[in-house]
Amino acid sequence: MAKITLDNLAHSYLPNPTGEADYALKELNHDWEDGAAYALLGSSGCGKSTLLNIISGLLNPSQGRILFDGQDVTDAPTAERNIAQVFQFPVVYDTMTVRDNLAFPLRNRGRDEAYVAERVQDVARMIGMEAELDRKARGLTADAKQKISLGRGMVRKDVNALLFDEPLTVIDPHMKWELRTQLKSLHHEFGHTMIYVTHDQTEALTFADKVVVMYDGRVVQIGTPEELFERPEHTFVGYFIGSPGMNVIPARVDGRQAYVNGSSLDLGQGYGPLEGKVEIGVRPEFARLSDSEGLPVNIRRVEDVGRHKIVRADFFGNDINIIAGEGEEIGADKTRVVFDPAHINVYANDWRVQGEAA
């Protein structure tokens, strides 16, 4: 296990980058705590896999350093970093049995056969492949092969870090849930530093202690699932986390009042003068319909998703979503919306602004 430090790190795939826009990975400084489980979350092309490949040594950064427990490994090859990496698509030895595939990393490091046999049996049980241990990998399905890849990544207890690059893409939905649970259990049992790349917020939020949200090559927020939900530091985080995502509404902010199309609402906190693009962000869970208070809203449709209802509405020309209770009646008189002031975030040029208690 190791503490991983990213020092002034950035990367461009161009030979002579001239500006920030040329960098696939914008400048980043961060410590990945020893023994923590992180998820790198973002849409395709945001820089997640680039960052993971730099940490693993598959890619040399254009600038900056990677340190493991304070030791500079920027130029060290992957084999010397003592990491295990599981890729998006299965990487297995087709001519070997499942048993020999799982045993390979241990035998390659000279572990005795009694330990190898015990550890292989433990990992096979984790991934649900005890019955296939003596089958050749060649005849297995893609999701079975990916389970072998996951198992081979987990079989060593002494690695500095376990890196997962969207490893459950080819796994069926039910097995995804089981394997996420097994990975979480493995982390609790052995305390490996784990970094898990995904574009699936459910995977990220259920797996990680802390989620690293990336957007356009930049880390826009690192936090617990609760922090990402309650206080999105960037409008992208609000949009990307949650289903539906946060409502983002253009507004003018003056002190503790926000003005939308001339109508005002209380922000609960005061704000100084703001420049540029100013918006308020309210999650659908913190908006409610009313027949007598709040601001006017025009309901377009109601979607009953079982646990609750999602109200799709027009709010001064902006599309917004409101979460209503499963048993809540939504009649024609519900023509207004109320936002909880304690859960309204204010943004200037997409970044959250800290308010001051009045």
Automatic annotation (TrEMBL):
GO MF annotation list: ABC-type ferric iron transporter activity; ATP binding; ATP hydrolysis activity
Taxon lineage: Bacteria, Pseudomonadati, Pseudomonadota, Alphaproteobacteria, Rhodobacterales
Keyword vocabulary terms for this entry: ATP-binding, Cell membrane, Membrane, Nucleotide-binding, Transport
InterPro entries: AAA+_ATPase, ABC_transporter-like_ATP-bd, ABC_transpr_FbpC, ABC_transpr_MalK/UgpC-like, Mo/tungstate-bd_C_term_dom, NA-bd_OB-fold, P-loop_NTPase
Pfam families assigned to the protein according to its UniProt record, in alphabetical order: ABC_tran (PF00005)
Superkingdom field: Bacteria
Species in which this protein is naturally found: Roseovarius pacificus
Annotated family: Belongs to the ABC transporter superfamily.
Limits of the ABC transporter domain: 4-241
Protein name: Carbohydrate ABC transporter ATP-binding protein, CUT1 family
CC per GO annotation: ATP-binding cassette (ABC) transporter complex, substrate-binding subunit-containing
